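Exercise 3.2. Students should predict the tertiary structure of the chain below and write it as structure tokens, then compare their answer with the key that follows.

Predict this chain's 3D structure.
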Amino acid sequence: MKEILNEICSDPRITEISMGTIRPFSEYSGREYYGTTSKNDKADFPFPPLFIPIIIDYNSTPVAEGIIKHWFCEREYTFGYIDFGSGFLIGESARSSEQFIEGMLFEQFIDQFNYVMTDEFLSLAKKLQISEEALSKFYEVSERETNNTDCYLPIFIENQPLNCIYNKNNYNGSHPSNEVVIIERNILQASFFEIFQKEWIGYNIKNRGFSFFNRKPKYQPLDNIPDWLKPDIEKKELFEYYMVKKEYDKAWLTINGPGFNPNEVGERLQRLKQVSTEKAFHLWADFWCSKYGHMDSFIFV
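Answer key:
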């Protein structure tokens, strides 16, 4: 895992957190560092290969924080979370390692240290290389009574992640959606698990009752939905079609969606590996397959 992260992300702090060298969370927090869990059965819970976990929270339904990485696509890698209990929904919470790490520390300032900069907290901040200037804003921002308070930290002002956005005109990244916004220009490089409201891509559209009483659905389906996101297309056949056409980006997005068990995803990752020369993808495909590729009794959604 260490070699994979070093290949993908140039910030060594991300690797140090994943490997447990730096531990931002207390041992009683329910969180585990993904790079340290090779002997932990809970770490065998599979997830779509577009998501590379760094930390997994087992407090209730597992939620992981990590890297969103799309190979074969012209998308920057970013940071986000995956909610295993919500159909593997993936949201973007940071556009850079700096945002990810400072946001994580800010969360601990509130939840673990109760708004007090103790010696333990300052020691953690030093390990994470968070400046005194950045820390000086924590008190002010923490007083805001709003959701996603970390979005008001100065580090998030430029290149805001989609988790901080409520007006799509303010977003310049590559993630496709959050709970309230769909970025239509990004839909052609989006995976199923990154679409928060499935009505946007044609799911769950039902007309009930007399037409006189029907209300306009809250979420309207998009006009141009790519085939791998549509509900009524056989995804295994679609993957084969894209492989023949050498449209490997679309093949990749197809297996990061419903209709496959981990064994079937793993087989197709190995086929995609044959058409890629990227070392990081080879390492990740082999790691993912060795950990999850034997599972055939579980289907993603």
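Discussion points: Residues 97-111 form the longest helix (15 residues). The mean pLDDT is 92.
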